[in-house]
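Task card 7
Instruction: Convert sequence to C-alpha cells.
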Amino acid sequence: MEPTKNLTELARELWREMAEMRNSLRQYVHVKIKENNWDISMELVEILGLIYKRSGLNQQEIADIIVKDKSSMTYLIDNLVKKGLAERTEDQRDRRNKLIYITEKGKLLMEELTPWVTEIYEKATRELLTDDILNALSVARKMNENLKQ
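Output:
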C-alpha cells in the first residue's frame, strides 16, 4: 500500500500531470496539422483561436492570455500576418499600440480547425463533470496566485 502523500508531493504530481496534458495536446494538434497539410504551428493555432473569439486585442493582451513573452509574440504574430491569417491595425487611442485582427482567410481556417479542437477537449473531459473542471481551475488559479506573491 502506497503511503499517504503530503501536500507538496501532491502539488508536484499535479504539475507533472498538467505538463503531460499540455504535451499530449501539442502532440495531438501536431498530428492533426500534418494529416491535413495545414501550414501552421500549435502556437499559431492558439493565437488564431484567441483572435477568432476576441479580435482587436493588442499584442500584450494576447501575450498575457496565452502566457508568452512579448518578444516571441512579435515573431508569432508576424508569421500570422505573413500567412494572411491576421492583420495589425493602429490603435486610434494609442498609436504606439497595434491591434490584432483575424482576416477572412484566418476565419476560414478557424472554421476548419474548430471541429477537431473541440473534439480533443471533448475527449479530454470525457467522464468528467462540470464541477470537476471548475474545482481543477480553482486549484490551478490559487496555486498561480500563490506563486505570484
